[in-house]
Each structure stands twice: as C-alpha cells, then as structure tokens.
Structure to design on (384 residues):
C-alpha cells in the first residue's frame, strides 16, 4: 500500500499502525510507506506500536508452541524481526530526545560549569541569595513573580502548569466525572482502555488525570505480573510457567494475563511520553511569557552577585566540577549523568554547609557540692 493511502489509515487507528509496524519490521512495507512511518508524524507512535506488537507476537508464539500450531515457527521468526526493529527504534527515539534537550535552556545550564556552580551556590546560601534577589527586583522596578513550587515529580509540574494557564485542556463533563471517581473506578476505566488498543479513552490523557492514569497502570501491572508469570511488572520476560501441567482453562488465563500486561506496559509508555510532552509544553510557554527575559536577567544578576560575595565557595564548586568537564567550563553530560550530578551536588553542599554545632555538655562548677547519698537503714555505715 502506498503512502497516500496508508496515511489516513494510520491517523484513524492505532490498530492500523500495528500491522504497518510489523510489515516494516519484516521487510514487507513499500519504501514510500516506510518513509512515512519513520517520519515526524508517526515515529513516536511507531515505537509504541512495536512495543505492543512485540508482546502480542510473543504471547501468540507461546500459545502456538503450547498448542502445537504449525505457525509457531514463522511467528517466532517474525518476533525476532520485530525485536530487531524495536532495538533500532529505541536508540533513535532516545537520540531525538537528547537532540531536543540539547536545544533547551535547561541543557545549556546543565553543560555550563559556571552556571551550575552558581545554582548550587544558591542552595548553599538560600537566605543570602533571597536578599540579593529582592535587591535586584527593587533596582529593576519589577514585581517578583510568585515562587514556582518545588515539583516532587512530573505530575506536580503538569498540574502546576494547568493551574497557571500554560496548558489549555477543556474540563469536559467526562473529565470531571473521572476526577470524582474512586481509585477503583479509575483503575477499571484504565483497564478497559488498555484492553481496547484500537480505542483511546481521551479523558485519561487530560493533564489533570495523568497522575491517576499512571497510578492505576502501575497497580494493574503489579496485580497482573504474578498471574502472567512475568519477570517483573515492567518486563514480560519468557514464559516460565508449565502450561502443560495446568488445566487448559487456567493455562489460557495465564496467556490472557500476559497479553493484558503487554497492553498495560504499552499504555505506561504512552503515559510517560504524554507527560514528557506536557512538561515540555509548559516550559516552552513559560519561557514565551513577555516578562520572562526580564525576570531571568534579575535572577541571573542575583546569582552572579552571590558568586562574587562567596568566592571561596564558588571556586570550591568549580574545582569539584572540573573533573567532569570536556573542555574549559563545559560539563560532559555523559560523564556526569543526572544521578551522578545529584550525588555530587549533595556532597558539595555538605562540604560547604558545616553541620550545626552541638552544644557543649553542661558541666558542674568547681564549687558545686554533690549531694551525699542517703544511708540505707538496712546497711548502716560502719563506725570505728
């Protein structure tokens, strides 16, 4: 099928995307259609489709092998081709995210040793920084913005962005209804959504429901993994259950649980991608605000003043960051990943901020007379 006919079908249904992804993996897709599938409109959905196809074909292969279906060998070969395609698509997806991140303001700070040192210095001297920031706002005759609350996770950031108007999502009656439902009712809705791969419960994709969607997906994965004989809630793994030793109905229940877990894992990946997209949108729209640059300048000036007033501490941070630089003042993100960065930051802050002094233990004055213990009536003191 040519690209012109394929595009509306792919846009109409995720179910249509799966056979296209399988055909691409097995070398049965025309070149024009393959170019469409790997283009900007479908490449992220392609990874989702391949993930789901991998699980579906794996379970089908397991079922065929168990039942002696003659198609088992061909299906197993198809599974290997899908996995090869997925192994190629995953790094490409990661590369796209890295490329996108490199162009962001956050990445520019992450790789700038001096900027990183100033931000860490702010954590070491928060009260002094706040004083300097207030002074800079007064000098600029600019009203300080309300402090953005610390986000514990991406869902906090998304919900804050909704409240601030950076995400435009309609509060439909269906969304209101889901927000008011019990955790069990939401989990049932999420389970139904996972079972219907051809459909999408669009309300679950609402920014204010992403957290509940993810919580329900995690619960479903935890509940299903033991029934499916999975390696873990996030990894299906090979079938280790001896289906021949089970009643036929119970064996099919295991295979059904494995299929369902695959669907839940695909939806979990979709939830992650949706959350990442929302968070990026919030950041971009926040930076597009008319007064964003003015506030940014005030903040940066306060940071520079803080570094000027704490030169020894600033130099210490730069010294600790230097082993991770790929060039003068340029941090190597590969040498200092997010986990290593967090660990180093905690170590450096502990070095800059000494632990609170322990008050000295009270001591008795030299003139203090200790009370004499009472003499027991049962054991009078000896007399001479």
């Amino acid at each position: 099928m040519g690209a012109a006919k394929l595009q509306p079908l792919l846009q109409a249904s995720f179910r249509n995307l799966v056979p296209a992804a399988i055909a691409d993996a097995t070398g049965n897709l025309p070149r024009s259609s393959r170019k469409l599938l790997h283009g900007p409109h479908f490449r992220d959905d392609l990874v989702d489709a391949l993930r789901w196809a991998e699980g579906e074909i794996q379970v089908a292969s397991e079922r065929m092998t168990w039942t002696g279906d003659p198609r088992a060998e061909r299906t197993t070969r198809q599974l290997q081709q899908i996995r090869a395609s997925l192994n190629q698509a995953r790094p490409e997806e990661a590369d796209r995210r890295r490329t996108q991140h490199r162009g962001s303001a956050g990445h520019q700070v992450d790789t700038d040793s001096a900027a990183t040192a100033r931000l860490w210095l702010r954590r070491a001297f928060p009260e002094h920084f706040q004083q300097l920031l207030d002074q800079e706002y007064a000098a600029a005759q600019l009203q300080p913005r309300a402090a953005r609350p610390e986000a514990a996770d991406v869902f906090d950031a998304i919900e804050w962005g909704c409240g601030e108007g950076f995400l435009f999502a309609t509060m439909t009656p269906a969304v209101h209804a889901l927000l008011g439902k019990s955790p069990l009712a939401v989990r049932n809705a999420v389970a139904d959504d996972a079972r219907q791969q051809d459909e999408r419960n669009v309300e679950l994709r609402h920014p204010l429901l992403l957290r509940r969607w993810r919580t329900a997906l995690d619960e479903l994965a935890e509940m299903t993994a033991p029934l499916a004989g999975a390696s873990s809630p996030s990894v299906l793994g090979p079938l280790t259950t001896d289906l021949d030793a089970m009643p036929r109905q119970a064996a099919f229940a295991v295979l059904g649980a494995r299929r369902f877990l695959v669907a839940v894992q695909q939806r979990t990946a979709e939830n992650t991608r949706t959350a990442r997209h929302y968070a990026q949108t919030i950041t971009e729209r926040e930076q597009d605000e008319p007064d964003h640059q003015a506030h940014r300048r005030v903040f940066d000036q306060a940071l520079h003043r803080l570094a000027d007033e704490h030169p020894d501490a600033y130099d210490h941070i730069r010294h600790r960051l230097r082993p991770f630089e790929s060039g003068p003042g340029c941090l190597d993100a590969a040498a200092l990943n997010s986990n290593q960065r967090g660990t180093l930051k905690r170590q450096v802050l502990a070095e800059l901020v000494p632990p609170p002094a322990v008050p000295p233990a009270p001591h008795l004055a030299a003139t203090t007379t200790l009370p004499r213990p009472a003499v027991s009536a049962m054991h009078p003191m000896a007399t001479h």
